[in-house]
Amino acid sequence: MSLSLVGCNGVNTPDSPLDAAAATLSGIVPSNNPDFRLPARVTLCGEEFDLKRQSVYERLESEFLRLVNHPSQVALWQRRAAVYFPHIEKELKAAGLPDDLKYLAVAESDLRPWIASPAGAVGLWQFMPATARHYELTVNKKIDERHLPEPLLTAALNYFRNLQARFGTWSLALAAYNAGEGRIGKALETQKVNSYFDLDLPRETERYVYRIAAIKVVMENAGHYGLSRSVPLKRYQNQQFVERRVNVPKGGKVTWAKLAQQLKCDYKTLRLLNPQIQEAQLTAGSYLLRVPTTSR
Are residues 68 and 47 in the same domain? Predict the structure, then answer.
């Protein structure tokens, strides 16, 4: 069976040579005597935590100590951040949103775009199907764009903006991201408070904003806590690709192995570049595929 392969839409290249990531990951000398104390001042998305308030300090310190004593997890975050943070940072800046929102992706998925939760949330930002469709992502039996970091980030930026506009503070917006807008709205109304730090919420949401802040503290001060390690950045870069339109005729089917042969690339890389396609083999229809420009 023959396929119709239509043009290239351009080459995906890294947003930068990862200079910022390199400075963060390999430019700090780990301390020989790490000091596992919180900084005197902690902010998240421009909002300062009241560390003089005992409940705030204890909750933040609890999340912080869980992370700072888990060096292997932090090391994995550092390496994945070298791949995903440059693009996320660029888009957050362009959208006029706080840079700190990148740490939400760490909390949600450990920076693993392939991850799916038992509840059905998918991707770096862990979108549920209904939320993804609301923000104009395709989610059906054949295509699930939540698996692609770029369109999912665009949806997440719009969602962040809407949550902050509704709730007025980033702490409440992030809580709503975790628990749902309805639950946070109802909690504010019934409990007669207007601050995340005054709300009585389900345990996961009680911890959520503190965990994101703790991730920020640890990743931005990794060397101080003895967690910074030199990262081989050349091994942590996105695969470059071009987009090719593939048309499968009515009644036709094509396996990924056959498609990889026709596109002159290897099977595994083709599958890794196209996690949005849910089918074990392509059936009748038109597909926009990412095809590697170079081999690893």
Answer: yes
